[in-house]
Design goal:
Elements: E1 2-4, H1 34-41, E2 45-49, E3 53-57, E4 63-66, E5 76-82, E6 88-93, E7 103-106, H2 107-110, H3 116-134, E8 145-148, E9 153-156, E10 162-163, E11 168-176, E12 185-191, H4 192-196, E13 204-205, E14 207-210, H5 217-229, E15 236-244, E16 249-257, E17 271-278, H6 279-286, H7 301-310
Parallel strand pairs: 2-6, 11-16
Antiparallel strand pairs: 1-4, 3-4, 3-7, 5-6, 8-9, 9-10, 11-12, 11-14, 12-13, 12-17, 15-16
Length: 312
């Protein structure tokens, strides 16, 4: 059993969202070469992905646990990519019981603190596993499908139909008033789903929603903000994106300007409460000086959008 440790790439500063990284060459040209994949499996390093979880060894940063293929559990295999030195990585969807001081964790827990290579392997493995789990049958004919091409397609057993992994575009936006300094404010909401899950302290986050057919990402930003909090935004500017495989989204991050102190009218089915919060209030929560409310976990692009705005 080995682990991915930080190297020259993994230890560098990360200016973008925490899960929008991963230096591994996906080597797509290898996916249709069954002979190469079979030989590569025998010399690969394998990450076991279990319902969105993997094993890590504790540390600063944590280490993603990899195992030899001979010791890998039975399960669908996904070819993740190949390094320049010839190291090959696969994922296997199977049970991952903690052993030898390891912990079973999800992306929310450690995604932000993993080195780049480990983070890329983790999120790709989870994304593929989730997609395969949702597509055991063809949506066109109802026929049973099986994984093929290194796990990057599913095919009917007669080879008549082929399915490719799908990614659902979603927008996530920090609405703010454009005011510089500590008095500048952003608009955050406490999602109704979090309250339903038993949150005792409100956790305020950015607004978000899926892009609908026939609209651009910018149009979706304006629509979602108006629907969720009743605020009309002006300028919408793209910031960055991050994959979020729960179950299979690509989060497109934006800033959206709104009039300072614009009146809020929440959609109670979506949002329990929404507030305009100053940079001073946000900083106090992040520094631990205030526990009045919570903020998004560090692995999320919501956290990235908020902290980037906080620091101007």
């Amino acid at each position: 059993m080995t682990a991915v440790r930080p190297g020259a790439v993994g230890a560098r500063a990360r200016p973008g969202p925490p899960l929008a990284r991963g230096p591994l060459d996906r080597a797509a040209h290898r996916r249709s070469d069954e002979a190469w994949l079979s030989a590569a499996w025998d010399r690969s390093r394998v990450v076991v992905v279990d319902d969105g979880h993997v094993l890590v060894r504790p540390g600063d940063p944590p280490e993603l646990v990899l195992i030899d293929p001979a010791g890998a559990p039975a399960g669908e295999r996904f070819f993740l990519g190949e390094e320049e030195d010839g190291t090959v990585y696969f994922a296997v969807a199977a049970d991952a019981a903690p052993i030898d001081g390891t912990s079973r964790v999800n992306l929310r827990q450690v995604g932000h603190s993993l080195p780049d290579l480990a983070a890329g392997l983790f999120i790709t493995a989870v994304g593929l596993a989730n997609w395969h789990a949702r597509h055991p049958y063809s949506p066109l004919s109802g026929k049973l499908t099986v994984a093929a091409q290194g796990g990057w397609v599913r095919m009917t057993q007669d080879g008549e139909e082929t399915l490719w992994p799908r990614t659902d575009p979603a927008v996530i936006m920090l609405v703010h008033d454009g005011v510089a300094g500590p008095d500048g404010r952003c608009l955050l909401g406490f999602n109704a789903q979090w309250k339903a899950l038993g949150a005792t302290v409100p956790r305020f986050s950015t607004l978000a929603g899926f892009v609908e057919p026939g609209e651009s990402a910018e149009m979706a930003v304006a629509r979602e903000v108006l629907e969720e909090v009743g605020v009309r935004v002006g300028e919408v500017s793209y910031v960055a994106s991050q994959p979020w495989p729960f179950p299979g989204s690509l989060m497109l991050g934006f800033h959206a300007l709104a009039p300072a102190g614009a009146a809020i009218t929440v959609d109670v089915e979506e949002i329990v409460e929404a507030r305009w919060l100053t940079r001073t209030e946000i900083a106090a929560v992040l520094d631990g000086e205030s526990k009045e409310f919570g903020l998004p976990f560090p692995a999320s692009i919501a956290h990235y959008l908020i902290t980037e705005w906080l620091h101007g």
